[in-house]
Amino acid sequence: MQSCPHWLETPRSPAHIVQLYGEDHGALAGNVSRFLYDGWKLGDGLLVVATAQHREAIVERLRAEGMDPTEAERQGQLVLLSAETVLAEVLVGGSPSPLVFDGIIGKALRSLLDRAGATDLRAFGELVGLAWRAGLYSAAAQLEELWHQLLSAGSFKVLCAYPIDLVETDAEADLIAPVLQAHTHLLASVPGYELALCRRLDCSDSQIVDRAREFATKASVRRRSPIAGLLKTGDAARVLGTTARTLLFYEEEGLIRPRRTARGSRLYSRFDLARAAIAIRLSQMGFPLKLVKRLASARSTARTGREASARLVVLLESLQQEVRERASNLGTLGREIQHALSLVRRCSACPHPPTSTGCPACPSEAGADESALLQLTQEANRSRSEKPRS
């Protein structure tokens, strides 16, 4: 197979390259090893998040090129991670967790960049490909967005891989188009040769170009569309861990304003999701909806910027005081729970078996009277049989 050396070897940062390899694992290993080897020669930090099969093939090819992956790992220039393990950790409730992603991928990239002598970074990842193969298309799109966020924070080069063949795939164009639009360069493989083309698709050869151009055209249209990157109600609810009814409720209360398609379907932006997420969080913590709405309208209903700032200061200080009081109450409750636990655990070593209602012979019985939690577990009519204390 021939490749496209003018940008595969030395792509400009930031670059987000995608390899569509179908079942041609050899083409994938060859391009990835070349991408990494050229970075190694330049002193770049290298991150590989790949399946066991592909890690083995990539390492073998790097050795054949003259690079010692073991030594590169020892020197901190190369980090090898299991894509299966990382994906299992990153997916929380079926959706990628930005915090976990940054704690694994972001941390690895930062450690590579901190290495003495590092000039740039190159990363190869199969998280998106594994999610795609499992039918988790929304999760794959979210993972691409997380890669984009890392790219925007620090300029480097990423090579992703999808098990897609532009000629043979049965996937709909609506699924393929987001894959193309999320990247700056495309590598598409079919048995017998490789086609490398940039976003402009300025090369022409065989039916694969026509198919790639068709998908890329759809991607370009979607990229210009005002609904690009928006989530439908079901997907938005899954991302937030809530229900469609909750989203509708917040819309009715004026907290979010999802866009509508021509058919009336709701589409939620990142802004909508962020507002809904904090509203849900405050609600779960017991804060009233009235407070959430006052925070949401503080700026929009103010006549001047100073008035908006003054309102926000009052609201946020009130919220801060409430949080402090709740934290204090939770601390007191935590100590009460610890005291009750220490009393109850004594029963396990007590020679006097307790009854379901109590144990007068137990040395902890007196202490139980001092624990409101344990008094809650006693029979409600106990107070009637107690003699008044002298």
Structural description of this entry:
- The chain has 390 residues and is an alpha/beta fold.
- The protein has 2 domains: 5-224, Rossmann fold, CATH 3.40.50.300; 231-304, Orthogonal Bundle (Multidrug-efflux Transporter Regulator, Chain: A, Domain 2), CATH 1.10.1660.10.
- Helix content is 55%, strand content 13%.
- The protein contains 18 helices and 12 strands.
- It has helices spanning 5-8, 25-42, 52-65, 69-74, 83-90, 98-114, 127-133, 137-153, 173-181, 206-224, 233-240, 244-252, 270-284, 289-297, 305-345, 365-368, 372-377, 382-385; strands at residues 15-20, 45-50, 78-82, 91-92, 95-96, 121-125, 157-162, 185-190, 193-198, 231-232, 259-260, 266-268.
- The strands form 3 sheets. Strands 3-2-6-7-1-8-9 form a 7-stranded mixed beta sheet, with helices on both faces. It has a 3-stranded antiparallel beta sheet with strand order 10-12-11. It has a two-stranded antiparallel ribbon with strand order 4-5.
- The longest helix is centred in the last third of the chain and has 41 residues, at 305-345.
- It is extended and about 75 Å long.
- The N and C termini lie far apart (97 Å).
- Mean pLDDT is 76; it is low at 1-7, 166-173 and 190-228.
Summarize the structure.
Helix content is 55%, strand content 13%. It has 18 helices and 12 strands.
Question: How does the SSE layout of this entry go?
Answer:
Layout: H1 5-8, E1 15-20, H2 25-42, E2 45-50, H3 52-65, H4 69-74, E3 78-82, H5 83-90, E4 91-92, E5 95-96, H6 98-114, E6 121-125, H7 127-133, H8 137-153, E7 157-162, H9 173-181, E8 185-190, E9 193-198, H10 206-224, E10 231-232, H11 233-240, H12 244-252, E11 259-260, E12 266-268, H13 270-284, H14 289-297, H15 305-345, H16 365-368, H17 372-377, H18 382-385
Parallel strand pairs: 1-7, 1-8, 2-3, 2-6, 6-7
Antiparallel strand pairs: 4-5, 8-9, 10-12, 11-12
